[in-house]
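=== RUN LOG ===
request id: a7f3
mode: sequence -> structure
chains: 1
length: 417
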Amino acid sequence: MSDAGHPRVGATRRLARGTLLALLCGLAACASPRGTLLPVAETVPGATKVDMLVATTRMRAEDPQEYFSGNRGPRLSFAEFIVSIPPEASRKPGEVQWPQSTPGNPATDFVTLKADVIDRDQATAWFRRTVRNVPKRRVLVFIHGFNNRFDDAVFRFAQIVHDAGTPVVPVLFTWPSRGSILAYGYDRESNTYSRNALETTLRTIARDPDVGEISILAHSMGNLVTLEALRQMGIRDGGVTPKIKNVLLAAPDVDVDLFREAVLDMGKQRPSFTLFVSQDDRALAVSRRLWGDAVRLGAIDPEQEPYRTGLEKSGITVLNLSKLRTGDPLNHSKFAESPEVVRMIGKELAEGQTLTDSRVGVGDRIIQVTAGAAAAVGTAAGLAVSAPVAVIDPKTRENLQGHVENLGQAVAGTVDQ
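=== RESULT ===
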């Protein structure tokens, strides 16, 4: 009997295909309505506002209600968005409440109060005005992962900034993602396409004399463009600007060897790196198969060689979230699903500290605080920290069954391991 005909293998594959189909259909049903980012006239008492600067390599959308599309723009574009987050009594930390229809209700939904596409001079003026009013003049740059529409990235970053509870200048760097789980190849090449623009953005921020320090938070595929931009900076300048203090790499969908070489190319003057890993990350397990069984950085076991010694020699901190249980069946967005994790990281960064090793510090506290409590928090699919909702377009749905069959086979092989 072949492996495919073995009862256990057949059952596993049917379960994997069924799980994937349920997830994809659920995502399609929950797609955000058109015009989610159109501003509403006013918010409500008790709501919180997050005012962010957006730098993007996306092209302007043909539909003005969408602002930016998943296509690649010829140059950096800028925007300012003010997002209203519902009062605490009306939301669960760690979640984005998407409007069921537009315009959204600020009492229960994430809505925008301002959505302006601006030029470089206006972006510079916004940044200089904002940074002077933030304690320690701290900047947080967020780079989202695979499968993110523009509105996904804006709302998720607003949620992270709010739930972290740390005063920062929020800068969203968003690259051209199609917002479809079937556009992995396009997204990855768009990610690489954006590395020069991200390097330029980081350099511009660091050159501002009012900036005290810069932290970078990247997730999944967003780690690739982050590492490439920092690597280029290190090669050009003999090191990374010292204003970039901390780089947080959450569930990095990056080849381990590529990460090692990128860090070496940055030189001795480089930021402190913290990796968020989980050995049960099924999304990264599928990615590993797509990339010829190349180990993904976000799924390593930091206690095993050769990782343990290499990480210790490089002074890289690893927070192992494998023991953390959440409601994400793919275990790819544990960072987003635990509000305690987001607040803890915000506290550590506010105090100007490097996150301590998971074996003795922050990681153990995360497990203690979040065990069981975070199970119901977050997105069902968890394909990206910055996207609780994935949007499947009509053309994608036409070919969905065939793709699900292929993905089901890959996941079934992963489950069998």
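=== NOTES ===
The radius of gyration is 20 Å.
The first strand starts at residue 48 and ends at 60.
=== END ===
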